[in-house]
Structures are given as structure tokens and as C-alpha cells.
Specification:
This is Putative regulatory protein FmdB zinc ribbon domain-containing protein. It holds the Pfam family Zn_ribbon_8. The chain is 24% helix and 17% strand. It is an alpha+beta fold. The protein has a domain of 37 residues. It has a 3-stranded antiparallel sheet, with no helix packed on it. The longest helix has 21 residues. It is elongated.
């Protein structure tokens, strides 16, 4: 079950509550009985493995139209430099 952070609008008391997804949000502060608000913070998300970056999702050995078009200029420039050096 997830843990939600709350803060009281009246007294500023901050607390956490473990609630189910189907439970209604809390509306009353346990300290002063004032109105509370759910706090949203940043969450730690780590993407591990391949396929999460633009370059990881492309196959360099593929001969599809988009990959062939991007590899052709590099191949022709390498031939030009090797031919001029010989």
C-alpha cells in the first residue's frame, strides 16, 4: 500500500498516511482538526537497461530506410578520407 504525505493548512503539521488506492484522501489534521492537503514530491525513478534513450532504441546493423539514410553520409566521408590518404 502506498504512503501519502499530508500537510495541515492551519497549523502546518506534516504527516504520512499509509492508504489503499481506493481509500478517500484525508481531510482532517490529527493535531488541530484543520483541513489538510496532499503533498506531492519528486519520486526516484531509475531507468536501467537498454532502450530508454534515443540511441539505445536504434539498431546500428539494421538496413531500414531511416538507418540507411543516416549511415550513408558517414560511410561516404570515410571512403573519401581513406582514398585521399592513399
Amino acid at each position: 500500500m502506498p504512503t501519502y504525505a499530508y500537510a495541515c493548512k492551519s497549523c502546518g503539521h506534516r504527516f504520512d498516511a499509509v492508504q489503499s488506492f481506493s481509500d478517500p484522501a484525508l481531510t482532517e489534521c490529527p493535531e488541530c482538526s484543520g483541513p489538510v492537503r496532499k503533498q506531492y514530491g519528486s519520486i526516484g525513478v531509475t531507468f536501467n537497461g537498454g532502450g530508454f534513450y534515443r540511441t539505445d532504441s536504434r539498431n546500428t546493423t539494421s538496413t531500414s530506410g531511416s538507418d540507411a539514410g543516416t549511415s550513408t553520409p558517414a560511410a561516404s566521408s570515410s571512403k573519401t578520407s581513406s582514398d585521399s590518404g592513399a
